[in-house]
Amino acid sequence: MIAFDERGHEIIRIDSVAHVYRLKSVLEFFVKKTYLTTPNFMTWRFDSIFGGKKLPAMEARDEDFEDAPQGSSN
Asked: What is the pTM of this model?
């Protein structure tokens, strides 16, 4: 499925849909013309699910790497 705006520009292209909720989201994105304010579907979908919240920044900590391999043993 390919969706075009009034000027004939491609808005979104779907090769396949595994779940109905995915198709519903894509159609909502297109029908409500959300692409005019948020041109990236995945950004819009994330914002619609999480209410615009951003993921917290993750900092690497020393204890995260204590058990990590320390290079080659050869």
From this structure: 0.57
